[in-house]
């Protein structure tokens, strides 16, 4: 029986779990907040405290991380999402901490792989897109049943496609990216300027659930922008299924709102929309199962 120490590094939290690779079940799981500091040393200390107690029970480490992962190095496409941390030797650092063989891919790519495996136990999706609407907006593509990681690790970074050419400047250096308009961070910023007090995305969402119509409008503009993105990618890639995940994507009714906007579109723009099966564990389980198979090393 092989045990994987799976790590999911997001803009808001870092989760670590021991995963039984035979059954793909989580044995033990811990979570900390992502340090909001530009300093690699602080990031590394946080990883050490989370991973050290779990490492002795594991055979290898599989990391799903926000950012572009290329040859084990994490580069933030949008450094604003990672407390300003821009470039980090992720695999070397975790290998040093745990003394275990370590492998890494992007968080949304990992989650896409897990969701694809889950779907295909009772379905036959060929082309699937996973979207996480969370601190940022990430994506993972499975085309012709193959996970696309890209030669430079970039594949699936759909959060940085433009939905409003006159929109706000994104941390990646492009103007009007969907991440700047529809992510949890963007929802929080829209609430902050509308209500004239500091709001998180979660605050705004909660208000929408309590019936505040301004908050609900913010959530609807996010869902409608995501529906446009889904329609664009469906007509480009012939998607069968789009899986929605992330803290905003899995919030009550959000997926229904997306479905509502998709229903208004002509037939060819309407893939099947489903919620992520693994919930917030998709990144952990996806990285574990992707790297557990020798050929993916
Ligand atoms: C950003 C980008 C993606 C990531 C996505 C979701 C960075 C640091 N991250 O678009 O790599 O997949 O956010 O990340 O540039 P999350 O932190 O919201 O899970
Ligand atoms: Zn961008």
UniProtKB/TrEMBL annotation:
GO BP, one annotated term: N-acetylneuraminate catabolic process
Domain of life (superkingdom): Bacteria
Keywords assigned by UniProt, alphabetized: Carbohydrate metabolism
Gene Ontology MF: a single term: N-acylmannosamine kinase activity
Gene3D superfamilies: 3.30.420.40
NCBIfam families documented for this protein: PRK05082.1
Name of the protein described by the UniProt record: ROK family protein
Source organism of the structure: Photobacterium phosphoreum
Lineage, uppermost ranks: Bacteria, Pseudomonadati, Pseudomonadota, Gammaproteobacteria, Vibrionales
